[in-house]
């Protein structure tokens, strides 16, 4: 059997969840589920980049306002899709060779989308270890303010507006330095080396736009979608994946959420099987394209099935959350 990477979290480490019998768990831990493909993720990444290139080319050829608006939303969605593929690379699931996995995560997925792979990976794996507790580095994404404030549409909107106005950007690059002793200058020195790939990638992308005849489109149709809609898509998905209608849901087990959703929501909010979120938290050593098979197995296990919240849609949950009675 394929061993579980030590940096990840196994299902039986979650407090309060009684794991199924070994006979139930063995199919989930089979090598066929855990071993990443050497070509699947590269094909997905190549297709995603090809779609982005086609969208950008369409706008450059037909720079009408309505084309820009459509291109803006679609580019942001595919930038987010690249970041979701980077998420698999965090767990060494993008490619079976660890060096290839990390190189792709740094240079082909993270840096073009403004993300420091190493810092983001450390924070994400910490999120897995500390899901739902105060030390969870992602807690700010799904625990937005005091309970009474969270029930107003204005406060809910404010949470996502702050993410787009720079909170997400600051967290992405400086979140790992929070709480560490030292001056701002020291923190900047610690973070600066991680930003070198980001700077190189952004200069390269700017050069491509300049060669295509419009360097300004780099800012309007690459940087701006990345800082706004891509952040919003991630913020909504992360909130819905971990929040509950009740403000104090209990321990980590109450954060195990998965969505059925619909194709449009999945395209914008949960590309590459991110709607299989509980399955991922329970078995983080399984590549995203095997998670549907994991779900089939989970649904035959009474213990696991009872531990997971199965939700129909992201926007439906947002409506239920806002309409829920105050705790």
Please bin the fraction of helical residues: 55-70%
Distance between the termini: 45 Å
Strand content: under 5%
The SSE string, one letter per element, is HHHHHHHHHHHHEHHHHEH
Radius of gyration: 20 Å
Major sheet: size, sense and barrel closure? 2 strands, parallel
Mean pLDDT: 83
How many helices? 17
Number of strand elements: 2
Q: Give start-end ranges of low-pLDDT stretches.
A: 1-23, 176-181
Query: How are strands sequenced across the largest beta sheet?
Result: 1-2
Oligomer: single chain
Shape: globular
The number of domains is 1
Question: What structural class do the secondary elements suggest?
Answer: mainly alpha
Provide a descriptive summary of the structure in words.
- This protein is mainly alpha-helical.
- It has one domain.
- It is 63% helix and 2% strand.
- The chain has a two-stranded parallel sheet.
- Helix 4 (65-90) packs antiparallel against helix 5 (98-110) and helix 4 crosses helix 11 (216-227).
- The protein starts with 21 loop residues before the first helix and ends with a helix.
Give a quick set of tags describing it:
327 residues, 63% helix, two-stranded parallel ribbon, 2 strands, mainly alpha
Sum this structure up briefly:
This protein is an all-alpha fold. The protein has one domain. 63% of the residues lie in helices and 2% in strands.
């Amino acid at each position: 059997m394929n061993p579980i990477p030590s940096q990840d979290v196994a299902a039986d480490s979650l407090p309060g969840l009684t794991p199924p019998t070994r006979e139930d768990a063995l199919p989930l831990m089979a090598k066929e589920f855990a071993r990443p493909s050497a070509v699947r993720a590269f094909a997905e990444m190549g297709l995603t980049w090809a779609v982005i290139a086609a969208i950008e080319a369409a706008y450059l050829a037909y720079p009408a306002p309505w084309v820009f608006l459509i291109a803006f939303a679609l580019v942001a969605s595919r930038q987010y899709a690249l970041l979701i593929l980077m998420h698999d690379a965090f767990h060494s699931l993008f490619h079976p060779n660890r060096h290839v996995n990390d190189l792709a995560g740094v240079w082909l997925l993270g840096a073009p989308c403004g993300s420091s792979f190493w810092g983001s990976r450390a924070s994400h794996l910490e999120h897995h270890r500390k899901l739902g507790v105060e030390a969870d580095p992602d807690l700010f994404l799904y625990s937005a303010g005091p309970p009474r404030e969270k029930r107003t549409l204005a406060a809910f909107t404010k949470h996502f507006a702050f993410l787009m106005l720079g909170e997400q950007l600051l967290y992405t690059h400086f979140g790992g330095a929070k709480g560490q002793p030292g001056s701002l200058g020291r923190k900047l020195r610690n973070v600066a080396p991680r930003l070198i790939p980001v700077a190189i990638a952004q200069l390269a992308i700017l050069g491509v736009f300049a060669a295509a005849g419009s360097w300004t489109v780099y800012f309007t149709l690459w940087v701006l979608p990345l800082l706004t809609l891509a952040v919003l898509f991630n913020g909504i998905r992360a909130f819905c994946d971990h929040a509950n209608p009740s403000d104090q849901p209990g321990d980590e087990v109450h954060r195990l959420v998965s969505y059925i959703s619909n194709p449009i929501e999945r395209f914008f909010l949960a590309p590459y099987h991110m709607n299989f979120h509980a399955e991922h938290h329970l078995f983080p050593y399984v590549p995203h394209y095997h998670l549907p098979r994991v779900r089939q197995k989970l649904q035959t296990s009474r213990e696991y099935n009872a531990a997971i919240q199965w939700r129909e849609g992201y926007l439906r949950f947002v409506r239920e959350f806002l309409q829920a009675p105050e705790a």
